Amino acid sequence: MPTNTGIQQLDAQPLLWFSWHLQVTWRPGRDDLLTYLRFVESRFADVR
To answer: Which residues is 32 bridged to in the sheet?
Structure first.
């Protein structure tokens, strides 16, 4: 199980949730949606 994940019941179904946060401060002048998507992609790569 990846770190910062857990099981939560929703409509009597167990679902896996993710709680991932950037380790660096978000800077709107530098960061955008693509920055965050790259972060998510790297986290999923760690799960494999």
So the answer is: none
